Amino acid sequence: MDCFASDSVIYFTSVKRTLFDPLTISARSAASCWLQGLEIEEIINMRKITRRSFLTAAAACGAAAALSACGGSSSASSAAASSTVASASVAAASNGEKFTVGICQLVQHVALDAATQGFKDALTEQLGDAVTFEEKNAQGDSNTCTTIINGFVSDNVDLILANATPALQAAQAGTNTIPVLGTSVTEYGVALGIDDFDGLVGTNISGTSDLAPLDEQAGIIKELFPDAKTVGLLYCSAEPNSQYQVDTVKASLEELGYTCEYYAFSDSNDLATVCQSAADASDVIYVPTDNTVANNTEIVNNICQPAGVPVVAGEEGIMSGCGVATLSISYYDLGVATGKMAAKILTGESKVEEMPIEYAPEFTKEYNPTIAEALGITIPDDYVAYEG
Q1: Where in the chain is CATH 3.40.50.2300?
Q2: Half-sphere exposure of 381 (CA within 13 A, CB side)
Q3: Is the dihedral of CA 23, 24, 30, 36 positive or negative?
Q4: What is the per-residue pLDDT across 275-310, written as a single tens digit (0 to 9) for each?
Q5: pTM of the full predicted structure?
Q6: Which of 39, 63, 100, 332 is 20 to 30 Å apart from 84, CA to CA?
Q7: Closest among 330, 336, 337, 335 to 355, alpha carbons compared
Q8: Class of 99-210+331-356 per CATH?
Q9: Residues whose CB falls within 8 Å of the CB of residue 72, separated by 6 or more in sequence, listed in order
Q10: Residue 159 DSSP one-character state
Q11: Could you tell me if 135 and 340 are in contact, meaning their C-beta atoms sit under 8 angstroms apart?
């Protein structure tokens, strides 16, 4: 194969005739054809090739051909190869490329809603009207997550956003080919069953984590309630990342001298009963980033506030409904970061299997002034009042 460069674009010639055979053309071969100047739609119409496969192959062919066919090791050759890969991404948008993104959100509550909105805003900013969203809410049911994911797979969407751990687990079981990005997931190793997780899943899954430093969350309890003796750990046993958080916080609290007790409920139906038991036996209650509690904060507040038992929450949304304080992140910003990752995957700039999990860069000490005042709790000056 011969090549020459013009205006920072590499052109390839002498492609074998078999590449044009509509019965045998592959995504990689089609990409080679495109690099010669054929329109994307002409190539795709030869044979049913997914746009996602075409773009991936185009980037790979462009880089490989530039390095091997042109020869040499000059900086000009390297720059031309990079330009070719970038041109594949630009061409996707300029040639009317369309992408469909399936969004599976576990349940509707403040944190997950914010993450979804941030994701959509960021991806729309990057790709404009080239992206269409299929947005589904599982209403807190893991089995519904599975049904939603299976629907996305049948529809052959270009990418899946799995918002919360059960949604991510359903996506892991549902596909190993469609790129999947998780968000509002605390610990990917726990969620995906990966031992000694090092931050890179290495498959079709990546995403963003909402993990705030758990030892610092325990530190908030020590800072606000130094005279407390017992801490109740209230969480849903069906959420593995909730279990991970309370286990970790428990260890930190015990090092600080507290006595801790687990109060696990199976779903929203027994939340009130378990919460009442926790309030009766605890000086303080800790709630992790638990989706079931997040969707039922009124139940917790109606029990704990009259009992005079403060709740320290794992995130802002839960704190706003039933907590006195939290060390939290911005879920909207987390969604934005996930949307930017999605844009890189869809345009071929990055491969999902090479993208490490991203974490929130900032954490904020917040307090709920309404509940703090009702319980007569004095909050240090370095806490920010929640104004939602």
Answers
A1: 99-210+331-356, 214-328+364-385
A2: 0
A3: negative
A4: 999 999 999 999 999 999 999 999 999 999 999 999
A5: 0.72
A6: 100
A7: 337
A8: alpha beta
A9: none
A10: E
A11: no
